[in-house]
Amino acid sequence: MKRLRPLGLRIALYAVLAGIAYVYLYPLLFMVATSFKSLTDLLDPMVQWLPRQPDVANFTRAWVVLNFPTTLTLTLLAALLPALAQTLVCALVGTGFARYPFPGSRLAFVLMLVVFILPPQVLLIPRFLVFKDLNLLGGLASTVVPALLAQGIGASLFILLFFQFARMIPKSLEESALVDGAGAAKVFLRITVPLMAPAFLIAFLFSMVWYWNETAQSGLFFGDGWTTLPLQIDRFTAAFEKHYPGGATGSVDKINEAVRMAGLLLATAPLLALYAVMQRWFVQSIDKAGITGE
Question: At what angle do helices 155-168 and 197-213 cross, to 10 degrees?
Fold first, then answer.
């Protein structure tokens, strides 16, 4: 009985984990399976997962519709630049709150947390009107400038993350550096930044993913002046009809979801590749983020 109980618990645990994994992986598996289906397979109710006639031409069409090389470059710029700016600025702001208190710093910190609590949709229209007055719409300035001012996507969360990391750094290290003649900037670069490396990695990766996947803010601020892969996916039907008027194999091809799924897979592939490369360091950073110090 003692041996059966741990075995039963393990079976139950594996069943729960398998169910959770299925819930998370089902959309990805569905996307991959559908992207290889031909129009005949899509219209055949007997074909559920494995296509009878795999059609790689779906990826060729999606590549053309998305204008993939150009759009990928624009997406990388739209995600990478504000992510880098936001990571650096949030590190400075979080360290400032933790190490350099000033009159009203507590009030400013509370207001920052209030902004974090507010739904981002509430601020879209006011930001749009402000950016319109400042002539920031239609390009990267609408995302890079807020990131430089610690007002990017999830900036409050990253400020809080760096704030907690900065508080864990022993003050004796900074005091020793100051005694040796180092200034505040040198202390930050030589001591604070290396010790907060996990926070930098977490903030950068999350920022890049969030900017990459953003459509509501990007669609409103970029307009027709800039585009990204998620925005192109949203405009996929119109772009498909533009490149393939009447459908490549007849008008029924307009309902070919396989091409759309192929486009989604192309748009998701760079993020999956990034995670595959950074997985080890990302998981280690997440673990270290829970460490408490003095």
Answer: 170
